[in-house]
Amino acid sequence: QKHPEVTILDPPDAIKHLHNRQSMLQDVADLNLSDCNGKVRVPRQMVITKDSLSIPDQVFEAGLKLPLVAKPLVVDGSAKSHELFLAYDRFSLSELEPPMLLQEFVNHGGILFKIYIIGETIKVVRRFSLPNVSKRELAKVVGVFRFPRVSSAAASADDADLDPGIAELPPRPLLERLARELRRRLGLQLFNIDMIREHGMRDVFYVIDINYFPGYGKMPDYEHLFTDFLLSLEQSKCRKRPATAA
């Protein structure tokens, strides 16, 4: 307010919306993108705010299917807020420390699509992710296991020899519509979407996370894309300035 000449890339209040994993995905759940060469969904999920001993009963009452991905509810930039766990049985969930978000695990062939948004620019990269969990494995394995972050640069799968049915990027019209709608609903320009394709389904996708101002340095050509974005903001600002009298 004191310096109106300063360009605000993204309002702080809008950024806060992505600090809560429950609210961040609600905007995706409200979308209807069925006319864009695919379907975008959100995994079934529930929030646990307190009393870890009651988690098994809460999961049973909610009817969530195992395995479950457990994530801290609040994303505050700390290493702890990015800790992820995979639970094979509901009774082991009592080992977790609320507040947590529990999300049904969707088999996706071990590949995650990271969709980077920089204004109107969309860039997609593949990352290795968790392998599919078979019914046999689910019947034999018990416990809650911590797994590493799949967003690290070392996990890039863009140059790997992958099954085309798994590695094929989501349809461009779907990504453009999703990015446009989320930019409008979130009121943000700099974020990324973590998306998976349901294994065996060519056109069914799930958004499992949205991150504000992600590690753009892991994205190919980020220097040029980011510079072009900043220049376009300045050009847009110049066009909006009132013409001065000669």
Description:
The chain is an alpha+beta fold. The protein folds into two domains: 1-42 and 106-131 and 155-240, 2-Layer Sandwich (D-amino Acid Aminotransferase, Chain A, domain 1), CATH 3.30.470; 44-105, Dna Ligase, domain 1 (2-Layer Sandwich), CATH 3.30.1490. The protein is built from eight helices and ten strands. It has a five-stranded mixed β-sheet with strand order 1-10-9-6-7. It has a five-stranded antiparallel β-sheet with strand order 2-5-3-4-8, covered by helices on one side. Strand 6 and strand 7 form a beta hairpin. The longest helix has 19 residues, at 222-240. The model has no long low-confidence stretch (mean pLDDT 88).
State the shape: globular
Uncertain ranges: none
Main structural class: alpha+beta
Helix segment count?
A: 8
CATH superfamily of the largest domain: ATP-grasp fold, B domain
Averaged pLDDT: 88
Give Rg in angstroms: 20 Å
Give me the CATH architecture of the largest domain, please.
Answer: 2-Layer Sandwich
Counted beta strands = 10
Kindly estimate the percentage of residues that lie in beta strands according to DSSP.
Answer: 15-25%
Largest β sheet strand count, sense and barrel closure? 5 strands, mixed
CATH class of the largest domain: Alpha Beta
Strand order of the largest sheet: 1-10-9-6-7
- Number of domains as seen in the coordinates: 2
Question: Any idea of the CATH topology of the largest domain?
Answer: D-amino Acid Aminotransferase, Chain A, domain 1
Percentage of residues in helical conformation? 25-40%
